[in-house]
Every structure is written in C-alpha cells, then in structure tokens.
Design brief:
With 251 residues, the protein is α/β, with parallel strands linked by helices. The protein is 35% helix and 28% strand. It has an 8-stranded mixed β-sheet with strand order 3-4-2-1-5-6-7-13, with helices on both faces. The chain has a 5-stranded mixed β-sheet with strand order 9-10-8-11-12, covered by helices on one side. The longest helix is centred in the middle third of the chain and has 16 residues. The structure holds NADPH dihydro-nicotinamide-adenine-dinucleotide phosphate (NDP) and the ligand O=C(O)C1=N[C@H](C(=O)O)C[C@H](O)C1. The site of ligand LZUJQKHR has 9 residues, from α6. Its main location: cytoplasm. It catalyses: (S)-2,3,4,5-tetrahydrodipicolinate + NADP(+) + H2O = (2S,4S)-4-hydroxy-2,3,4,5-tetrahydrodipicolinate + NADPH + H(+); (S)-2,3,4,5-tetrahydrodipicolinate + NAD(+) + H2O = (2S,4S)-4-hydroxy-2,3,4,5-tetrahydrodipicolinate + NADH + H(+). This is 4-hydroxy-tetrahydrodipicolinate reductase.
Length: 251
C-alpha cells in the first residue's frame, strides 16, 4: 500500500486527488499540505514543517497540485525525507524548472503538465501529424476555467514543444491589429471562462483541408486518477526523472 501526501490539498485538484484516492486499494492519502489547514474527506491537512510531517506520516510519494512557489520547497522536503514526488503543477519559469529537476538526482521525480491518458495519445498523434503534413499551417488553442492563473496552459506548452521538435515554428501569442501570418509561425490562444476543465486543440490546415486534433477533459478526476497511477508506479523506484508516458505504457 503506497502512502501518499497531497500538496495543495485544499485546492480544486488537491481535493479531487484525495477523493479519488479514497476509492483505491493500492494507495492511501494520509496527509495533505495547504495554506488553509483542516481536513479534506477525512484526511488531515496541515501547514507545519513538511519534511517532519512526511517522516511522521511515513509518506512514500507526494502528489503536488499547487503553485510553483510551493513546489520548490516541497521538493527540498522530499529530498530530506527521501520521498518520491509527482508534480502536476504548471507555470514554472526556466530557473524554477531547473531547480525542480535538480531534485531528481536524490529522489524519484515524475512531472507532467497533464495526467490524462488521452493527452499522452494526443501528443503522439500531434507528432505524427506535424511530421506527415509538412507545410500545413498550425494553430494551437486551449480553454480553461476562470480560476486558472497561468497561460498558456502547461499542456499547450508541452504540445508546442512536440510541434517544435518536428518543425521550426515561432509561437505568436494571440493576434491583434495588422498581423499578417508568417509561414513559420504557430498561433497560440488561451481562453478562460466558467469551469471548463481543460480543452486543447491543434489544427493543421493546407492542401484544401483542415485536420483538427483535440482533447477535452470532462472531469478533474481524469487528472487525479493519472497522478495517482503515477504515484503508485513511482513508489520504491531509484532517484531519477521519469515520464508519465512510461506509466501509460506500463514500462
Ligand atoms: N498536470 C495536470 O494534469 C494538471 C495540472 N494542474 C495544475 O495544478 C495546479 C493547481 O491547480 P488547481 O488545483 O486548479 O489550483 P487551486 O488554486 O485550486 O489549488 C492550489 C492550492 O495550492 C495551495 N497553495 C498555495 N501555496 C501553497 C503552499 N505554500 N503550500 C501548500 N499549498 C499551497 C492554494 O492555496 P491558496 O488558494 O490559499 O493560495 C490552493 O489551495 C495548477 O498549476 C494547474 O495548472 C491542474 C489540473 C491538472
Ligand atoms: O489548471 C488546470 O485546470 C489545468 N492545468 C493543466 C495545464 O496547465 O495544462 C492541465 C489541465 O489542462 C487542467
């Protein structure tokens, strides 16, 4: 039985992770960390010294859905307590990402901008489509709830990286005014409204046709289930950086 802690436990995703964990018998959420303390679904949520709490609750893996400023000290606490770390938080700058990845020399670390299995498949399909449809215009769109603070979404950035690994395109974030399209650009658009759980779409247009590759999450439970699968998979592994694709492929 893998014992997990949840960072950002009182947030939208943290609560969903704790609720989803309650239905599983391969792992248990034993403690949460957040600014606001109390409990979520019977799991204590504390704000005390995280490394001490990880030892006290005998935590194997921490699942993090919080903010970058919280994830970095959390990674240090995981190193101190020798706990694995699954990171779903998005919005890191380059330095923050480097600091986070540095923790993987001491602990097993798995970070993903999207823990849905469908997005893994979308990434692979996008790679194949961009490779096959050379010269088609590319445009990337994402939509999320009105509480999301980072833009474009982490998933959109990951999809952009996939595209750029296949083709040399320059992102243009939104367009306004006189803005003729260059051949080597990719428009990137972020919408924020209501409680949209997460929608991503890449269109490839040319040769009198439009290919649309899209994914939409219907419930946060899809991300929570993927993150918990990652936590169960990560427990007991050697220090290093792992990829959610390995979990999906059952490696
Ligand atoms: N990889 C994936 O599959 C997914 C990733 N995400 C990402 O997860 C992150 C969280 O999303 P969401 O749950 O919607 O956001 P929320 O704002 O609802 O939750 C974040 C929580 O973290 C808390 N927090 C802030 N600072 C600390 C701290 N120092 N220690 C502990 N907790 C802290 C916040 O508290 P307070 O509100 O008081 O500041 C809040 O309760 C985002 O970066 C989002 O993009 C989301 C869905 C899926
Ligand atoms: O904040 C969210 O909600 C989500 N964030 C992730 C992202 O930034 O890509 C994943 C998912 O789309 C939901």
């Amino acid at each position: 039985m893998t014992r997990i802690a949840v960072n950002g436990a009182a947030g939208r995703m943290g609560q969903t992770v704790i609720e989803t964990a309650a239905d599983r018998d391969d792992l248990a959420a034993v403690v949460g960390f957040d600014v606001e303390t109390g409990e979520v679904d019977g799991v204590p949520v504390v704000a005390e010294d995280v490394a001490d709490a990880l030892a006290e609750y005998d935590v194997d893996v921490v699942v993090d859905f919080s903010v970058p400023a919280s994830t970095l000290p959390l990674a240090a606490a995981c190193v101190e307590a020798d706990a694995g770390l699954v990171v779903g938080t998005t919005g890191f700058d380059e330095d923050g990402m480097e600091d986070l990845v540095a923790a993987s020399t001491s602990i097993p670390l798995l970070k993903a901008t999207n823990f849905s299995r469908g997005i893994q498949v979308l990434q692979r399909t996008v790679r194949e489509a961009v490779r096959a449809l050379d010269g088609y215009d590319l445009e990337l769109m994402e939509s999320h709830h009105n509480g999301k603070v980072d833009a474009p979404s982490g998933t959109a950035k990951t999809l952009l990286e996939v595209v750029q690994s296949e083709r040399d395109v320059e992102p243009v974030y939104g367009r306004e005014g006189h803005a003729p399209r260059a051949e080597d650009e990719i428009g990137v658009f972020a919408r924020r409204a209501g409680d949209i759980r997460g929608e991503h779409e890449l269109i490839l247009a040319g040769n009198d046709e439009v290919v649309s590759l899209s994914h939409h999450a219907e419930d946060r439970a899809v991300f929570a289930a993927g993150a918990l699968d990652a936590a169960a998979w990560l427990a007991g592994r050697d220090a290093g950086q792992y990829d959610f694709g390995e979990v999906v492929d059952g490696a």
